[in-house]
Request: fold
Amino acid sequence: MDEATIITREDYYKLAYCYYRNEKYKKAAKKFSSIANSSDRLAQNAYYHLGDCYLQMGEKNKARYAFLTASELKFDKQMSEDALFTYAKLTYELSMYPFNEAVNALNLYIEKYPESNRVDEAYKFLVNVFMTTRNYKDALESIESIRNLTGDIALIYQRVAYFRGLELFNDLQYKEAIDHFDKSLDNAKLNPVIKAQSLYWRAEAYYKLGKYKKAIEGYEAFVLSDGSFELPEYNLAHYNLGYANFKIKQYDKAITWFRMYDQFMENKSSERLGDAYNRIGDCYFISKKYDDAVIYYDESIESELKDVDYALYQKGFALGLLKDYNQKIIVLNQLLNDYSKSSYRAAALFELAKAYLIIEAPEMAISTYQTIIDEYPYSSYVKKAYLGQGLIYYNSGDNDLALEKYKRVVEEFPGNPEIDDALIEIKKIYLDMNNVEGYVDYSNSIGEYTVTKTEEDSLMFITAEKIYLKGDCDQAKGHLNKYIKKFPNGRYILSAHYYKANCNMQNGDEDEALESYQFIISKPKTKYTSNALYNAAKINYKNKNYKAASENYTELEQIADRKNVIKEARIGKMRCNYFIKDYEKAITSAIAVLKTDKIADEIYREAHYDIAKSYYAMDNLQNAMDEFMIISQDCKSREGAEAKFRVAEIYFKQGADTLAENEIIDFNKKMTPYQDWVARSIILLSDIYVSRDDNFQAKAMLQSIITNYSTRGDGIIELAEDKLEDIVTAEEAESMLEESIEDFEVVFEHSDLFDDAEVEKEESNNPDKQSVIESSQEKAVDSKEEEVQPEDKVEKNADEPKEQENTPEIEKGNNNGETE
Reply:
C-alpha cells in the first residue's frame, strides 16, 4: 500500500454525503448514523441528512426522530427551524404518536418561529390535528390556552369539549361530563348536531345522578333542538323521558312519552319497546286503571320482547283486582308453565293459591301453598303459605292440622309480625275446642309470647315505632334500644333491629348498623332480610371485608325475588371474589352476571374484564386473550384501554411480535383518554424493536415517552428511562467488544475511498449535483466550528401532508336508557 491514514468522522461524513447526493440513501443512512453520535455541528448536519435519507426510503418513523434530534442542535438556526417543521409535519402525518405530540410539535414551532413564512401552514396542520384527534383531554387544554377562540378553532372547541364529555360519561364521571357538555354548549350555534348531542348526553348524565327534573329539561330541549330528529338518540329520548317522569311519579306524562316512543319506533323488535309497554301498564296499574293496565301488559306479552313473565304476573294481579279470578288463574298458570325459572314464580304461586281460595277450590289452594313451602323454603311467602293452609284446614273443621300450621309460624319465624295472626288463630281454635287448659299450657310454653308479656311487648314497640316513623331517629334509638334489651326475643325484635340499623346508617354509624343487620340475617327470612343483606354487603364491601361481603351477596342472590336485587347481588359477588383473588369463583360469578338481563354496558365490560384478568392471573393466556379481545374493541374505557394493551402483550409473549405490533399501531390510531396504557404499549413496542435488533426505533419510542408523557408518579417515565438506559448500556458493551476485536485504525488507499471513475460516471448522470458535491468537499469539514451546508432543502423531498378525506363522523355514544 502506498499511503495510509485514519478514517475520521469528517471522512465518514464526506462519504455519506456523496452517497446521499447520488441517491444511495441506504448506504448514506448507514454512514450518517455512524457519525451522528455527538452533539456538535457535524452531528446536526448528519441527523438532518439522515432524516431525509429515511424519508426517501419511506421510513417516516425513523426520519421523524432524526429531524427532532437535528432540531434540538442549535448550530445552524435555519436547519433547526426546517428540521423542527419537518418533524412536526411527520408527527402529524403518522398520527400514531400519542400524547398529542403533533399538537406539541406544531405549537413549539409556532412559538419558536412566529415570523416564519410557514406559520400559516403550521396553523393549518394544527387545525387538522384538533379536528382528527381523539386525545380530547390534552387537545382541550391546548385549545383553551389559545386567547381568542374564533372561527375554526371555536368550532373545534365545541366538538372536542363534547367528545371529552362523552369520555367522562363512559368513565362514570357524570358531574365532570356535565361540565364539558356545558363547555360545548357555550358554542352551540356553530354546529347544531353537536349541540343536540351535547343536550342529550348532558340529560343522560343528570339521569344517572338521579337528578330527574334536570334530566327531563335536557331531554325536552334535545327533542326540540335543530338536528335532533335525524339522530338515533331521538327516539331514545322519548323512552328516557318516560322513565324520568316515572321516577318522579308523573305517571300521566310518563305514559305520554312512552306512547310517543312506541309511535316513533320503527324497529318493533326492540327489547326497549317491550319494556315501554310494561312501564305504561305499571303507570295505569299505579293509577288504579286496571283495565288499561291489562291492555298494555297484553301488548308486552304478545310482543314477546322483554320481561314477558313480569307482564303475565302483573296482568294476573290486575285481573284479580278486577275480580276476574278465573282469568287470573289462567294467566298465572301460563306464567308458571312457560317460565319455570322466573323470579316471579313464588309470588305467582301465592297469588294463584289466593285465587283458588276465592273460587272455593281449597284442595288446589293447599297444594299450591305447599309448592311454595317445598320449592321456595327461603321465600318470605312461606309463613304466609302456612297461615293460608291453617285457615283452609280451620274452615274445613280440621283443627289439629290448622293448629299444626299456625304453630309452625310461631316456632319457625320468631320476631315476625305474622306471629300475631298465628297466635290469634291458635287461641281461637283452642277456645272452639273448649280446651282453655291446653291454650294456657301452650301460651306458657312459648315464653316471650305469653298474654301479659305480649301486651307489654306490643305497647313498648309501638311507642318506639311511632317516634321512628316521625323521623326522629335520635329519640327513637333510645326507645328501640330499651325494647331490644328487655325483649331480646320479642315478637317485634326484627323490626326493632331494622329501624335501629336504619337510624345508625342515617347518623353515619355503620359499624353499629352492621350488628343489627347481622342479627336480622341470622334469623329466618322476613321482609327485612333482603335489605339487611344488601346493606350489610355494602358496609362490608366499603370496609374492604370482601369475604364477608361475598357471603352476604351470595345469600342475597339465593333469597331475592326481584330481578334488580338479584342483579346487584351477582355484580357484588363478582367484584368481591375478584378482589380476594378467588379467580375461579370470580370467573363463575362474572359469567352469571353476563347471563343476567338488563345489565348496563359498563357492567358488561367489567364482567368480561374480571374474567380476562382472572385468567391472566392464572396464567391461562389464551382464555385471557379471548376475553380481552371482546372489550378491546372500545378503548374509550379504562378496561378497554388496558385490554388493548394486554392483547398486544400476550401476542408478544407468544412470540407473535408482528401481531403485537399491529395491535399497538391500531391502539394508537384509535386513541384513548387513558394515556398510561398507550404509554405502556409504546414501551412494549420498543421491546419488539429491541427483539428485532432495531435499537434506533426502540430508542425513538422510549424518548418519545420521556419527552412527551405528562403524568408523573405512575412509574411509566421511570420505566421508559430504565429501558432506554438498558439499550444504551448494551450498545456500549457491544461497541467495546467490537473495538477489542478489530483495530479502529484502518489502512486503505485513497482510491478506495472515492472511486473517481465511479463518481464521475454518477455525476455525469446527475449534472445538477456536480457543484453541490464540489462545494461540499471544499468545506472545511474537518473543523467542528465550520458547517457543512446542504444545498437541497429536505422539504422539497418530504411528502406533502395528506389531505383529510372527510371530517370524521360525529361519534355516537352508547344508548343508556334505563330499564327497571
